[in-house]
Amino acid sequence: MKTLKFQIQGMTCPHCQMRVSNAISGVEGVAVEKIDLTSAEVNLEDITKKDDIIAAVKSAGYSVTAVQEI
Fold first, then answer.
1. Is the pLDDT of residue 40 over 70?
2. Where are the domains of the chain?
């Protein structure tokens, strides 16, 4: 299964990490696989809802600066 890696701008502390995780988890059918605070990256297995995930991250107050399919 393919995974998407999202680079998140503004995620700098554990509180930010939790807000991003909660926002992404709020997208129906999406589960957070991994959030790395050090690199500000989120890995997700659901590649079909990329636009919904980006919108959720933005609504939480953060920006997605890059998306990579791995």
1. yes
2. 4-69
